[in-house]
Automatic annotation (TrEMBL):
Membrane topology annotation: Multi-pass membrane protein
Compartment(s) of residence: Cell membrane
Organism: Halorubrum ruber
Keywords associated with the record: Cell membrane, Membrane, Transmembrane, Transmembrane helix
Protein name: Branched-chain amino acid ABC transporter permease
GO cellular component: plasma membrane
Region of interest: Disordered: 358-392
Biased segments, Basic and acidic residues type: 382-392
Transmembrane segments: 26-45, 51-70, 77-98, 104-127, 139-157, 191-208, 241-264, 276-303, 315-332
Length: 392
């Protein structure tokens, strides 16, 4: 890319920022906020890093649920796959890599290589699991993904070939990069936050490009009506399979980050209760909006943290989330994002009362799962959409 092209893009970005509350301005404010959070107290940096990881987990899950209409209760399998991939590489190949590249930079090389291995491992697992799972629909799809997840949980507990260390899990030590007198501890909270923020932003942008591509449009068509999509010549099974693999890969990246953040890869990551975190975050935030899982993860983690500040309430935190879920399901079927857009419409007189739905809403919901193109597939699937809280 030439300097002229770069200068032109920067100029266009600056003009877009100056024009009002555009997507570019929100992006710029978000980037500034990410930088400022790095200056917060260490525990808040850790908590926000945790939020970023859970948000990416939920975002990957929602690619399958919110955009293709398949509810999985087994995505913890891929979350754990990414975590165990990097953990095993750090444990078993760290000394070998240090002999090859030198001790100073080997922690960084091992970390990157471990992340790649974790991602490849997740894709290798997702290919057969997805191929078998997408042959089923609705509750049967949910059950088979739950079964695969719990099968993975049992295998990890059994410690095949001494790889997973059974119930104790695998300790993750990220090490310190030392080059020319410059030391950088990868596991330091602010350094790891920076790594996680860059990775999550890049992955989020990748998912956004996917859902706004022809591939994403086909996903939404399948979600609205698989039969009509098939009638248009779409290979529904193959497209669901590809979406399953992409979704698993995104979740696997979150799993890689989770291992470094928690300093351990444990069997609990595979358990169905871990998969349920992505489901809860997505439902709270709004499955029909691109940013819904991110908002839901923020609400989930920070309410959980606020409850933990009061020991008398800590023992009953499930009660609070149960009440929150009931309120969302009964009164905010489009989740927190849908509720906020509805509130914005009422305050500023949008007048259509649709909460920003129907493909409108400007920059705020530019990545909404429902688009005007979806309007062609409507009435026959209204009941199914209402059942999963999708009123888009």
């Amino acid at each position: 890319m030439s300097a002229t092209d770069t200068g032109g893009r920067v100029s266009r970005f600056g003009s877009a920022v100056a024009e009002g509350w555009t997507r570019e301005r929100f992006g710029l404010l978000g980037a500034v906020a990410l930088v400022l959070i790095a200056l917060a107290p260490p525990f808040q940096v850790y908590l926000f890093t945790d939020f970023l990881v859970v948000a990416l987990f939920a975002l990957g899950f929602n690619l399958l649920y919110g955009y293709t209409g398949l509810l999985s209760f087994g995505h913890g399998l891929f979350y754990a796959g990414g975590a165990y991939g990097i953990a095993i590489v750090l444990r078993d190949l760290g000394p070998v890599i240090a002999d090859i590249v030198g001790a100073g930079i080997s922690p960084l090389v091992t970390f990157v290589l471990g992340g790649v291995v974790g991602l490849v491992l997740v894709v290798l697992v997702a290919v057969p699991v997805g191929w078998l799972s997408v042959r089923l629909e609705e509750i049967y799809f949910a059950l088979i993904t739950l079964a695969f997840g719990m099968l993975g949980y049992s295998l990890i507990i059994q410690d095949p070939a001494g790889l997973t260390n059974g119930t104790d899990g695998v300790i993750v030590l990220l090490g310190t990069v030392d080059l020319g007198g410059f030391s950088l501890r990868i596991g330091g909270r602010r350094i790891y936050y920076a790594i996680s923020a860059v990775t999550v932003v890049a992955a989020t942008y990748g998912v956004w490009r996917v859902v706004n591509s022809p591939f994403g449009t086909v996903c939404k068509a399948i979600r609205e009506s698989p039969d009509r999509a098939a009638a248009l010549g779409i290979d529904v099974g193959h497209h669901r399979w590809m979406t399953f693999i992409v979704s698993a890969a995104v979740v696997g990246i979150a799993g890689v980050l989770r291992a470094g953040l928690a300093s351990v890869a444990s069997p609990g990551l595979t358990h169905w209760s871990t998969s349920a975190i992505a489901v809860i975050a997505t439902v709270i935030g709004g499955a029909t909006y691109f940013y819904g899982p991110i908002v839901g993860a923020f609400i989930f983690l920070y309410i959980r943290w606020a409850i933990s500040r009061f020991p008398a309430l800590e023992a009953y935190w499930e009660l609070f989330f149960g009440a929150l879920l009931i309120a969302v399901v009964l009164f905010f079927k489009q989740g927190a994002v849908g509720g906020l857009l509805l509130l914005r419409d009422r305050l500023f007189g949008d007048g259509d009362g649709d909460g920003g739905g129907g493909g409108g809403g400007g920059a705020l919901n530019g990545g909404q799962a429902s688009t005007a193109a979806d309007d062609g597939a409507e009435s026959g699937d209204d009941n199914a959409r209402a059942d999963r809280g999708d009123n888009s």
